[in-house]
Amino acid sequence: MSREKVHTFCRLCEPACGLVAEVEEQRIVALRADTDNPATKGYCCNKGLRYLDVHQDPDRLSHPLKRITSRAEPTAAFQRVSWDEAAEEVGNKLQDIVNRHGDEAIAMYNGTTWGFNSTLSTNGPRLIGPFGNGPRFGPITTDCGNKLAASEAIFGSAMVHPIPDLLHTDYFLCIGTNPAVSHMTMIGVSDPMAKLRGIKRRGGKTVFVNPRVIESSTPETGEVLLIRPDTDFYFLAALLNEIIFHVGYDRGLVQKYAKNFDRLIDFVSNWSVERAAEVTDLSADTIREVAREFCGARAASIQVATGVNMGTQGFFAYWMVQMISLLTGTLGKRGGNIYALGVCPPVDIFPGQKKAVADPYFQTEFGELRKVAGDLPCNLMSDFLQSREKPVKALIVRGGNPLVCMPDEDRFRAALNNLELIVTIDIFPTSMCEVSDYVLPARDFLEREDINSIDNGFQVEPYVQYTPAVVPAAGERRDDWWILARLAQAMGRPSMLDDPEPNPTAGIEAMLAYRGLSIDALKRIPHHVVQFPEPDPEDLFRFCITHEDGLIDCCPPLFERGYARAEELWRRLKSEPEDQLKLITLRTGMLMNSWMNNIAAHKKGIHMTNPLWMNPQDASARGLFAGSEVQVRSEHGLIQADLLLDAGLKRGVVAMTHGWGQGKSHGLNVARRFPGVNVNRLAPFGKGSFDPMSMQSHLTGINVTVEAL
Ligand SMILES: Nc1nc2c(c(=O)[nH]1)N[C@H]1C(S)=C(S)[C@@H](COP(=O)(O)OP(=O)(O)OC[C@H]3O[C@@H](n4cnc5c(=O)[nH]c(N)nc54)[C@H](O)[C@@H]3O)O[C@H]1N2
Ligand SMILES: Nc1nc2c(c(=O)[nH]1)N[C@H]1C(S)=C(S)[C@@H](COP(=O)(O)OP(=O)(O)OC[C@H]3O[C@@H](n4cnc5c(=O)[nH]c(N)nc54)[C@H](O)[C@@H]3O)O[C@H]1N2
Ligand code: SF4
Ligand SMILES: [Mo]
Known about the structure:
By secondary structure, this protein is an alpha/beta fold. Helices cover 29% and strands 18% of the residues. The longest helix has 19 residues, at 83-101. The protein is globular. It starts with a strand and ends with a strand. The protein binds ligand MGD (2 copies), iron/sulfur cluster and molybdenum atom. One ligand MGD binds at residues 111-113, 117, 139, 142-143, 306, 398-402, 405, 425-428, 430, 442, 444, 480, 585, 593-595, 658-659, 679-680, 699.
């Protein structure tokens, strides 16, 4: 039997590790790291390799399903229907809803998998537009809404995020991210830990800022400064204050590229090192030392990720990050934070993305809101689904699981009862599918062609890779773009399928054309990979400042909206009792947010559930011990969990992995036996529960109490 090797790549997270699939008679028999991939050089993690289990999982969705039980019944039953039946029924119902309730009656939730699917993301507006003007949601506002909104205001575009030049930096300030586990986000870097070890070998160092001694911190990388959760803004503002008023800043970049600089100075003058020390649990001397080290390094760089984004002030924190780069002259400098031109200059990958406007806010029945890259705040999804002013009657969930990944599971379940139609497009029968009326089966990444588009502009070592579909899709699974286009067509709306020969790769070809490439050309190249020259740090100033005047806005007047809140939250933190417990969330190498949870080989030891981790001294102060069953309570909810001890946690901090709590996924025969607990039941939800600057959910540093059951 002939065995063919197909070069492809992983699309679970941002390193896009090269893989080789071995294929016999259109079946994948092995999936391994592509050791000769010129870009990712054989690096790969267990999740990438285990994707073969995902691909072969007998529980996978392979046919369109229609619900035959009422939604009120505890266990859902589904019947297999043809694509035509499913599409026509859904299309008719959607159109009928629009006829009765208007063009704003269809809500959508587009999950994380959006960005990892280029035939979907490059066709965004054409695929989403036909469903009207209803509210749009997605993980943007639980993941990185702060970054998108802040970059839009500062640089002019939501997709501009200067990355740390990890190959040349000699001081890396790494805040609220755990590269060893997550492999980092909004930066595309193969084998991030090797890059961090490289910094140390060159005589530099990484400084982590985190409430926990994380796996990434080793003698070969650097130490952790243990910060009190949700205080990063004060730490970053104090760093900038110290740089401006004591260490001295670089006037070169400021004179050339900055506007509203005096307003920035005014704002920062208020946030001294001493004030930060009062709430961050970092001493004034420690903060001063970081400022001196950062400025004294030959080339210093900085990165913040979800640990900061999910705080109450991720937007202001990210603002400070950009200003630290600008004022230390490390922005657009080799070894500092740079723009890494990839296959083409920044492109919009979110359907509703637009350039900066002076005031993006508008009035709604839930207060003043803005959209971030087209999305409304996830924390108001339940409210919008029950809107009196603009009734929503249908919800389409594509490639995400808002039941588990957003706060507010109970209210969200209740809000779903209001809807006439729920459609979920997924590869697995998740808990979201269980509450849906129609469930539509998508193709997995081994079943579709793609390029690594999500990291365009964020890659430490830029390259583009093409992959063909490794094997034909099993059953009746269809591409995500096709499914959305088919539903639009059935509604009688403009659809990509109106074209007798639809071309889902036109957007990809347009990106490739910038470099004189095409899919055909990539197909002929070994591994289908083309690497681009080392980034020119100055490209940042060429491509990334998209305000009309060509300047970086150091302090848009819009930001004043957050000033009083920064003071108010500081006072609140200062007045908290010393023994206040704060919850943070974690990732593990076995899960991808709420999924990869049906892999039997992963369900071993501590990975069989999601315990509550506590510092041993905090545990003994409460008479708790490893194995205790505990009750964790916040102002917003209550859960039960098993307690385990982690001496690496800062005192006063407890931690849990998110993505669990799927006992109601009856079709997932492994996951339902290892349900775990939905930690997001403890997170704030509804009006006022998110960062008003960026609509970003507040998911870290949540005040909780823990008691024995
Ligand atoms: N294995 C695995 N990899 C993943 C994912 C996954 O679920 N599993 N998810 C992918 C996705 S969607 C994303 S967005 C990325 C996320 O990538 P990362 O942002 O790197 O995600 P985490 O590993 O959760 O790291 C967040 C860190 O923030 C710390 N933290 C929590 N609260 C605070 C705080 O208030 N301040 C500071 N300074 N730190 C804090 C936590 O201890 C944790 O170490 O990972 C991606 N990669
Ligand atoms: N407490 C807490 N909450 C968090 C986080 C946290 O760190 N702490 N992290 C937040 C972050 S960063 C994110 S990104 C969100 C994630 O939020 P979501 O995107 O809503 O959740 P995922 O679990 O990533 O869901 C992905 C779904 O897509 C399905 N899927 C996989 N591949 C495909 C495909 O090709 N097509 C289709 N149609 N479906 C596919 C999977 O089976 C899964 O059901 O969660 C957020 N929630
Ligand atoms: S690091 Fe991310 S992209 Fe690489 S194999 Fe693991 S999950 Fe896939
Ligand atoms: Mo994410």
